[in-house]
Amino acid sequence: MIDPKVFEMFREIGRDMYVHGLISSHGGNVSVRYGDRIIIKRRGAMLGRLKPHDLIETGLEKNDSGVALASTELIVHRAIYKATPALAVVHAHPRHAIALSLSREEIVPIDNEGSYLLKKVPVVEEEFASGTPQMAKKVSDALTAYKIVMLRGHGSFATGQTLDEAFQWTDAFEEACEIILYNRLYGEEMIEYRKRVESYTEW
Asked: Counting Cβ atoms within 10 Å, is residue 106 exposed (0-12), middle (13-18) or buried (19+)?
């Protein structure tokens, strides 16, 4: 039985991800780690309308009986927890970020909040980008040095000590990507307002 407080935490973050346009109806997933246990969204569940039975608990190292119901991205979440000190993971499909990932090796925010919070976000690539060991390794390796990474054409993976923190990086990242696209759409030369701007390409 999942603790009601844990469920409420998942429900609020899932709802906010949908309301903020970070996922489609059935896209994305979230998880938290408690010691050697992981709680993750059920496969096919709607993050914006989570019910208590939509959360699956399983082991960090080995499968439990209910693991077949867990998100197809469970392998990626496990790899992230093993490679980083993260206690929460948010995987989203932010539209503006996905669009930018199709033509960039890294995404460098140009707005003040994005620059301050994220500096830059690397774009990693994997041909079979849905719950494969190859994808899990590339994403988890990148997250040893960054708070959030982008899988080209697929979506973002963010880590945190809480779901709130991982959600913050995800939401700030999508806002930064939207601002980049608006700036390109307007076609006006950007007035650089940040000191030591060259440092924003370094993490």
From this structure: middle
Q: Determine how many CB atoms are found less than 10 A away from the CB of residue 149.
A: 24
The pTM assigned to this predicted structure is 0.91
Q: What's the CA gap between 140 and 138, in Å, rounded? A: 6
| Residues 52-69: tens digit of each pLDDT | 999 999 999 877 766 667
* 102/181 Cα distance (integer angstroms): 13
Q: Report which residue type is found at 113.
A: E
Residue 59 belongs to what H/E stretch? strand 55-59
Which CATH superfamily is 4-201 part of? Class II aldolase/adducin N-terminal domain (3.40.225.10)
Any alpha helices (H) in 108-162, and if so which ranges?
Answer: 112-118, 133-142
For residue range 165-199, list pLDDT tens digits in order: 999 999 999 999 999 999 999 988 888 887 666 66
Q: Which residue in this structure is represented by tokens 């392998």? A: 75
Do 177 and 96 contact (CB within 8 A), yes or no? yes
Closest CA to 139 of 79, 94, 71, 49: 79
Cα–Cα distance between 118 and 191 in angstroms, integer? 20
Q: Where are the domains of the chain?
A: 4-201
